[in-house]
Amino acid sequence: MDFLILLSLCLVSWTGTWGKKDGSLAQVVIETEVGRSAKIPCAAYSPENAIQPTIHWFYEKNGKKQKILTSGTSETIHEDAELNDRVKLESDFMLVISDIRVQDERFYLCLVENTNSAPSESKLQLRVYKAPELLEMKLDDAPLQLNDKVEVGTCESKNGFPISNITWYKNGFPVNSMEDVEVTYLYTTESSGLITILSTLSMTIKQSDNEAEIYCEVSYHLPGGDYMLESKTGNLTVYYPNKKVEIFQERPEGLIKEGDTVELKCVGDGNPQPEINFYKSGFEDVRLGSGTSLIMENIRRENSGGYKCQGIDYNNFEDDLSAETEVHVHFLDQPMFSVSSPRVMNEGETLSVSCEAKGSTAPVVTWKTNGNDVSNGSILNLKQVDHDMSGNYTCIVHSPDVQDLIVSKELQIFVAGTPKVSVTSLILYVDENQQVTVSCTAIGYPAADIMWSINGSTTERRDELEVTSELTFNVTQDLIDTSIICLATNENGSNKAEIKVEQRLVSTVTSATISVTEESIKKETSRESSHGVVIVVVIVCILLLAILGAVLYFLYKKGRISCGRSGKQDITKPSEKEQIVVEMKPDSPVEESVLLPGSQEKKPPGDQEKYINLRN
């Protein structure tokens, strides 16, 4: 029986515990949500013990039983108009209620009548849940005054079931249980049975509550777990009187220099901010403007001094709302030279120039020319000047204590002398009737005048030291193998440079020559190829002969080869005393000459030399 009951309960969403009521009924709690279906098992029914059972389903209403339906062996009779269209029976007489409503939260009883046993009954409780549809918080738009408990805002949770819990938070911490906080609730039951909760937050307002973040949270239960929903966050605005004001430099960061835009700011310690007026301190204060900020553009050194702000709070006339500060504007004057600029010098002379600049702090001086440092310090020393030392020398003065406080001034130095002349090329290779452009540069003071030795069109660029002239001309036969002269002249003398004009050499090769050359190359290649083959063959033959000779020599040393000996050579090496003797018998033909051992020692029979007949 218990097994079947547990198996039936697995088919529905429920939580609960088994218990006893009046010592007889087993009670189960089943959970579901509004709009869904609920399956309620008949725990009193057992298929093994049931013989022609009749099942009656009831629910309790106002302490009385209300029959839902009766199911016999042949048909099921619905007897409750409220549930008539939303209930049905499934296997094992399980009661299924669709489209659950809040009003369906009741106790349900199942009565089983058997023909062979006494009736049995089981009881179950159905609990219905509904998540809130909306959580909305409203804070009071009007600024709050320092006071005893005042209403701060409301939080509304709509159409939930059953009653949910609402918690208020300030700066992330719950405040419901705090001493200076009061939270009230108003519950409204809608016609659908759903519940709307309106919670009101009241608290004692303090100065620290200004800009505090407030929100509310509703927590509720659904089958399967607990859930929560948060509202949007709002901020409190609290008004409290100003007790003092403070003036400070908002920009720039760090020390102030001439040309900066300076902003002074004055703020109070209350809310709202007081009305602010700015003054330049002196024998008589001069009003400069109103507002929370005073902006001074392109500030000058004469703007240094004391500045004061005065605040007015209409909620506090007792305290003095004023503050002062000092503004110090740093500066550097333009540098002054000990000599005038431009400075004209002769070659070989020496010059010493000082650069001085007054400022609010001790300055640092550096001399530069062409981007390179030439002196650290206020004195520039030039010795044995020449043309290359002409140019602009810049004195740079900066303050090491004040960022970007820099001034500079240029000193022009001209070294007088005959001009130095240079041309683009000393030799010019040309073709007849070709148009050519050449360039000539003269450096010296005063700036030189340039003249060319031939006619053509010229363009010129000049400054106080350097002149560049470009000459464009057509090459004629008369100009080839001659020189073009560039002459530069100033009041100190003249110099010249020459450009040698030469005919461009062009090598011509006839087709016949090319053909002959190609044929010669082919023949030479063929010869070289033949010679190479012959050399390879000769080298291979030499190597083969050398190998053959080595093999023959080896065999000879081993005694494997008889070099004209009449008998078989002993394979052992002969002693130094042994000699080879050729015996000639007078009564025998020449062909019967034999080889005789040089030693007369007797040898073993096996070692006796054999004689070989050399006759054919």
From TrEMBL:
Signal peptide: 1-19
A Pfam family: Ig_3
Entry's Gene Ontology cellular component terms: plasma membrane
Membrane topology: Single-pass type I membrane protein
Ranges where the record places region Disordered: 564-616
Main location: membrane
Compositionally biased region (Basic and acidic residues): 567-588, 600-616
Location of the protein in the cell: Membrane
A GO MF term: laminin receptor activity
UniProt key word Disulfide bond: yes
Listed SMART domains: IG, IGc2, IGv
SUPFAM superfamilies attached to this UniProt entry: Immunoglobulin
InterPro entries linked to this entry: CD80_C2-set, Ig-like_dom, Ig-like_dom_sf, Ig-like_fold, Ig_sub, Ig_sub2, Ig_V-set, Surface_Rcpt/Adhesion_Mol
Domain named Ig-like: residues: 35-127, 132-237, 241-328, 335-412, 419-502
Transmembrane segments: 532-556
UniProt keyword annotations, A-Z: Disulfide bond, Glycoprotein, Immunoglobulin domain, Membrane, Repeat, Signal, Transmembrane, Transmembrane helix
The protein, known as: Melanoma cell adhesion molecule
